[in-house]
TrEMBL record, chain A:
<comment type="function">
    <text>Component of the nuclear pore complex (NPC), which plays a key role in de novo assembly and insertion of NPC in the nuclear envelope. Required for NPC and nuclear envelope assembly, possibly by forming a link between the nuclear envelope membrane and soluble nucleoporins, thereby anchoring the NPC in the membrane.</text>
</comment>
<dbReference type="GO" id="GO:0030674">
    <property type="term" value="F:protein-macromolecule adaptor activity"/>
</dbReference>
<feature type="transmembrane region" description="Helical">
    <location>
        <begin position="60"/>
        <end position="84"/>
    </location>
</feature>
<keyword id="KW-0653">Protein transport</keyword>
<dbReference type="GO" id="GO:0015031">
    <property type="term" value="P:protein transport"/>
</dbReference>
<feature type="region of interest" description="Disordered">
    <location>
        <begin position="374"/>
        <end position="394"/>
    </location>
</feature>
<dbReference type="GO" id="GO:0051028">
    <property type="term" value="P:mRNA transport"/>
</dbReference>
<keyword id="KW-0812">Transmembrane</keyword>
<dbReference type="GO" id="GO:0006999">
    <property type="term" value="P:nuclear pore organization"/>
</dbReference>
Automatic annotation (TrEMBL), chain B:
<dbReference type="InterPro" id="IPR001680">
    <property type="entry name" value="WD40_rpt"/>
</dbReference>
<feature type="domain" description="Aladin seven-bladed propeller">
    <location>
        <begin position="121"/>
        <end position="478"/>
    </location>
</feature>
<dbReference type="InterPro" id="IPR057403">
    <property type="entry name" value="Beta-prop_Aladin"/>
</dbReference>
<protein>
    <submittedName>
        <fullName>Achalasia, adrenocortical insufficiency, alacrimia</fullName>
    </submittedName>
</protein>
<dbReference type="GO" id="GO:0005643">
    <property type="term" value="C:nuclear pore"/>
</dbReference>
<dbReference type="Pfam" id="PF25460">
    <property type="entry name" value="Beta-prop_Aladin"/>
</dbReference>
<dbReference type="GO" id="GO:0006913">
    <property type="term" value="P:nucleocytoplasmic transport"/>
</dbReference>
<dbReference type="InterPro" id="IPR015943">
    <property type="entry name" value="WD40/YVTN_repeat-like_dom_sf"/>
</dbReference>
<dbReference type="InterPro" id="IPR045139">
    <property type="entry name" value="Aladin"/>
</dbReference>
Amino acid sequence: ETRTTFNRGPQRSFECMWRDMGNAVASIAWAVLLLPPITAVFVIISRFSLLHPIQAVSECLSFLTSASAIFSFILLCGVIIMVGFLNLEYYTVIPTIACSKIALLGQLLHPRQFVNSLGHCIMGIIVAWCCAITVGGRYETIADPCAQGDGSPQMCLNEYHLILLLAGAFVGFSHSLLGVIYNMNYVSFHTVQQYKYLRFKGSLSLVLKCSATQALYSVRNYIVVYFFLGKWSLSVHPLDSIAGLLDLSLLYHLWISASFLLFTWHLTLLLFRVFVTEVYSFPVQSSFTEDAHQCLPTVLTDKQPMILKFLALLDLALLSQHSPSRRSEVFSLSQPGGHPHNWNAISKECLSLLADLTQRLIAYHDTVATNGRAKSLSTGSERKTSSESSGMFPRPTLLMKTPASVFARSIVGCPQSPLTAPFTPDLDSPFASPALRRLTAPMDQCSPWFGTVQSPHIMRRVPKLWSTSTGEKSQALFADSQAHIWALEGLSYLVQSSFSEDQFGVVQTALPSILSCMLGLQEAVDRHFKLPHASSKPVRSASSMGDSTHKTLRFALRATLKTSIYRITTTFGNHLNAVKMSAEHRKRLQQFLEYKE
Amino acid sequence: MCSLALFPPPLPSGQTTLCESNNELLSGTTTEDRLKLSLKLHCRTESSSKAAFLDHSETLWMRSAAACSYIYQLMSFYINSPLSCAVVVPKWLSVSSGCTLALLRWFSSFHGSLFPHLTMSSEDMLAEFSQVLNWSDCVVRAFAWHPHTDKFAVALLDDSIKIYNPKSATTPTLKHRLQRSVAAVQWKPLCATALAVACQNCLLVWHVDPCSLSTRPSSGCAQVLSHPGHSPITSIAWSPSGSLLVSASPMDTAMMVWDVASESGVPLQRVGGGGVTFLSWSPDGSHVLASTPSALFRVWETRMWTCERWPCVKGRCQSGCWSPDGSRLLFTVQGETVIYALTFTDTPAGVPTCTSKGSQAAAVVADLSETTFNTPDGDIIVGGEIQSLAWDPTGERLAVLLKGDPQAADRPAIIAVFKTRTNPIFELLPWFVLLCVGFVQGEPGTEPRLMQFHPNFQHGALLTVCWSSGRITHMPFYFLSAGVPHFGLSGSPSLPRPQERPADFAKQSLFTELMS
C-alpha cells in the first residue's frame, strides 16, 4: 500500500503537469494566433490620419510588410508567450487575501512578486519599443541628429522615443502591482458553464473596456511621474514641461500604446482563465488498476495540485446534478467484495472538507468572543497558496520546511486569520491534512508564542497599519469556499437522487453524518454572519480584470448550504424523523422541514 | 385534436365556477364565496406627469438614444423647412447633411420596422409582453405561490407586494424605492425566504423571514441586481434547483443568468430577436424557454447554455409551459388560435451535446378558434387569441387564458380548462391527449387576468385566478393523480373526500385565513 502511494505520486503530478501545460500552451497558442489581427488594428489606429486616409492606408500596408514590422511582431509573440508562462506560474484557485495594509505591502515586496514586476517591466519596454516602431515618425529612433551651437551635427537623445519606452515599463510595472492588489492571478470558476469560445466571446468586450480604462489611468499617473522626474540633459526637445507633455498627439499615442499592451496581456490572461477552468470529466471508476489514480474518488482525496482537486469537485457537482449513469457508478458496489468504495471515498472527502470549514469558523468565533479581537493580528501575512496550486513546477510540501513552533502558531492563527508572518509561507493550506492538525493541536498551549503575542497589552500598541478589517478577515476565512460549495452541491444532489436511484442503500448509512455535518456547518455559518461586518456586502469593482468572486464566496456558501439542506429535507420529508441525530440538530432540521429557515 | 366546440357551454350570467369534481366544473350562484380574497382597489398613482420628463434612472444608452432622436428631429426640421432655402449655407454642407439624414431615416425606419417594440415606452412594453391580461390597469400585477408551502406573494398596482401566509398572523408589505412597475414575482425554490421581483429598472430579491413579526421589512432586506441596458424586466425564472435566476428584458438581446448570492450576472447574448420577453424554466431544470419580440423563440439547455432557435411563422411566442418531466413544451403564438407542442427527448445527461435532439417541427395539439355558444343570455363567442398557459404540477390539467375582446360584450376573456394526459397507457393514441373540462368564470362583469396553479396541492390541482375586480379565487380540481394507473381516458377518479362539498372547502386552513 505504501509502495503504491510512493510510486503514484510523481507519476500523477507528471500527468497533471501535462494536463496543466496542455491547457496553458493551448491558451498561449490562441493568444499568439490572435496577435496578428490585433497588431494590424493597432497599426491602422496609430497611423491613421483623417486628412489623408488613402495615403495612411498604403503606408500601413507597406509598413506591415517591412522587415522591422516582422521583427517587432516576433518580439511581441515572445512577450505573449512569456506573459502566458507567468500566468501559469503565478495563478491560484484560492485567492490571496491581505487582511491588513502591512500584509498587502508584504505581498508587494515579496521576492516572487519582485521577479514578476521586473519581468513585466522588461516586457513592457519591449512592447513599447515595438509600438514606437509601429507608430513611426518622431518616435522611431532613440537618437536624433541635432545641431549644436557651433553648427556641427551631433546625435541627441530623442525624448519622444524614450517617453514611450518608459511608459511601457511604467504600465508593465503598474499592471503587475494592480495584479496583486486586485488578485488578478486568482482564477475563479463560473456558476454558469459555457463552451470556451462562447465564454471568451462574452468577456471580450469587457477586456477591451478594462484595457482602455486602465491604460488611461496608467498614462495619467505616468505623465505626473514623468513631469517631476523626467529630466534628461541630452534631450533635444525637453518634454518635462507642461506644454511639452500636453501634446495631444503624444498623449494619444501613449494611450493607444498602453491600451495595446494591456489588451494583449489581458487577452492572454482571459484565454488562460477560460482554458484552465474548463470542465474536465474524470472517470468515476476504472476496470484497470493502473488507471485508478485518474478516477474521481482518488483525485478528490489528493491534496495537490489544487486545480485538479477543484476540477474534481466541480465534476462531482455536475455529475451529481446532470448524469444518472455516472451517479449509478457512484452508488455501485465493488466487485468482488460488495463495498461502496466510490461513495465512501467521495462522501468522506466532502464531509471532511465541510467539517474543516466548521472547525475553522468555530475557532474564529471563539477567538473573537474571548478576546474581543482576533488573536494573531500582529502576525499578519498572506495565505500562501499560489505556489502550491501551480501544477507546472511541483514543489516539495512546505509543511516539511517549517519549524514546529511556527507551525503550531499557524494552526491556531490560521483559522482565525490565515495570516502569519509576511514572508513565512503559510502552512495552513485549507486542505492540509486534518490528521497533521490533530497531531499538532495540543502543542498550541505549549508554544512559547501563545501567551505573549495575543496579550491585549501588546495589541493596544499595534499601529493602525497592522489592523485588519473584519470584512476582509471574513473573506479570508472563506477564501477556498468554492470547494465547499461544490462539496455541498455534490453531496446534496447525490442524496436527493439516492432516494430513487440508490439500489443498495449505500447513501442511507451516511445520511445521519451528512445531515449533522451540514447542520453543524449551518450553525457555525449563522453564528459567523452575526459578527459585525461579516454580512456587509463588498463594493463591486465593475471594470477591472481582477476577479472579485472571492469577495462574495461567503454569501454563496451560505445560500448553497441552505439550499442543500432544503434539497435533502424536501426529498425525504418526514422520513428524516427516523434518522438519528442530536436534539439540537433535530430542532434545526424541524425548522427546515417547516420552511422556516 | 381538441377544439372549443367540444366544451360544455359557458355558465349563465351570475354563476361562478367553484371547483372540479367528477370530471365536471361545479358552479354556484353565491357571490359571497369563501374561496376568495378581495383586495382593495388602489388608485393609480403619479400616472400623468411621469411620461413628460425623462426618467433620471434611465440608462446612458437610452438617454443618448433620446438625444439622437432629438438631433434627428432638429435636422429634419431645418432641412425640410422652406426657411433653409433662404439661409445661405454652403452647398456641400446641405448636400452632405441631407445624405446623412436620409441614411439616418432609412436606418431608423429599418430598425423600427424590424423591432417595433423598441419605440415603446417601458410601461407599454411591460403591458405588451406581460403574461397578465391588460397589465396596465390590473389591480394584481403579479402573483406567485411559494413552491413548497401555502404562502403567496401578490404585487399590486401601487407597486407594493403583500405576502399572505395562512400560518402567520402578519401580512408583510414589501416596498422599495426601486420597486416600480412590477411585471413578475417568483419565490426561490428550496428556500423559505427569497422572493425575486422583476421591476422597471432592476431586479429585486427580497429576503423575508417567515418567522419575523415585522409587517414592513426594510429595504435592506432586498438585494438589487441590475445590469446596464437590462431594463425593463418583463420576465424572471428561478432554476428549480434554486441556484440560478434568469431575467429577460425586451430592450436587451442578452438574457441574464444571475448568481443571486454573489450578485453576479452572466449575459447570454444571441443575435436576432431584438430582446427577450418571456422565460419559463422547465420543472426538471434542463431547459429554458426564451421568447423574443419577433417571430422567434429559443430553447436553452442549461448544462452548457447553448440554444436551439425556433422561428415561428406568424408572430412572437406569447406564452409557454412545460410538462412536469420537462420533456414537452406547449406554447402559443401571437395572432394564432392554436396551441403547439414540442417534444424534447434528451440524450442521456452527462454526454455534453450541443442541442437536445427533439422533434423538428411543432405539432398543433389544440385549436381554440372562435366558437359560438347559445346560452340563455344570448350567444357568446369564445375563443381566439391566447394570453397565457398554465399546466398543473401533476401534468393533468391545462388552463388556457383566452384574451377575448374587451370592447365586445359577447366575447369575454375566459379560462378554458383541459384535461391532459402525456403518458398514455394505450400506445396507439398520440402522446398527448387534451380533453375538455370546461370554462372557468367569475362574477358578472369581471374577467380573469392572471392564473397560476398551486405547486403542491394534495388532492389534484388548485388553480388560483386573479380577476379584474382585484379578487383572487382558488379553484380546486379534484382528481387522482396519474401515479395510480387508470384505464380509459374518460374515467373519472372519485372525489378524494366524498363527504366534502364545495361549501365545506372553507374549513381548510388555507382558505379561512385568506378571507378579508
